[in-house]
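Dear colleague,

Thank you for sharing your sequence with our group. We've completed the structure prediction you requested, and as agreed, I am returning the results in plain text so they can be pasted directly into your records. Please verify that the sequence below matches your submission; if there's any discrepancy, let me know and we will rerun it promptly.
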Amino acid sequence: MPVLVASDLDRTLIYSAAALALTMPDARAPRLLCVEVHESRPLSYLTETAGHLLTELGDAAVFVPTTTRTRKQYQRINLPGPPPGYAICANGGHLLVDGVSDPEWHARVTARLADECAPLTEVREHLMNTADPLWVRKHRIAEDLFAYLVVERELLPEDWVKELAVWAENRGWTVSVQGRKVYAVPKPLTKSAAMREVARRTGADLTLAAGDSLLDADLLLAADRGWRPGHGELADAQWTAPAITPLPERGVLAGERILREFLREVRGGA
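Please find the predicted C-alpha cells below.
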C-alpha cells in the first residue's frame, strides 16, 4: 500500500531569503536551490540536499504539496523530483489532479462553506473597516474562498489580531499570522479534508504530514505521524500532540530535516 506524504510548503519545505535562518558562519552555509521565481526574481529556496531528498521521496511515496497558496501562486513553484499527481491549494479549497482542479471537490467545499460559516463579503468588509492603512500594504481575496492582508509586521498591533480572532471565531472563521500575512480562513476550509480525499483515492494506509502554522494543525492531527519545525506559529505556541514530533531545527535546515524524517518513515513502513 502506498504511503501518502502531505507537506506544507512555505516555511516548512521551501523558504524565502528572509526566512532561511542561516545562523552558521558563511563558509558553512548550505548550498541552496531556487525553486520559485516571481517577476524575474528568485523567491523561494531549499537546500541542494533537500532537493535530492525530495526527489527520493517523490519516487518512494505519494507526495502531495499542501498549501494555502492560490493555484496561480503554487504553479510558480518548480520542485525537484517527479511532478506530483495531486496537490492541495487554497488551504484545501482546490484539489489538483495532474495540475488541474477537480471541479466536484471544489463544489463540495464551497457548498459546505455556504452552509457553515459567515460569507466572505462580511469578513472582507470587516477587514477593510478595521485594518489601519498605516500598517496594511495590501488587501487580498484568494480564490473567492478566504481573505488575507499583507502587513508591516513590526507595526501590526497584537491586540488587533486578538480582537480579529475573537470576531472571526464567532462567525466560523479562523485567523493565522504567517510572516507578513494575516489570514482569515473559514473553519471548514481545511487541508486535512483534502488529504483524506487523496488518501481515499490512492488507497494509502499510512499518512505523514508536516507544517509550521496554525492552518497546518488540522493536517498534522489528521495524519498518522506529523512533524513541525522549530519556528512558526505552532512552535511559538509550543503546540504538540501525541503523534507529532517537534523538531529543533529552524529555517531552511528544518525543511531538510523534515524530508529526512519523511523518508525514514516511508522506508520503515515499506
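Summary note from our side: The chain is about 35% helix and 25% strand.

Kind regards,
the structure core
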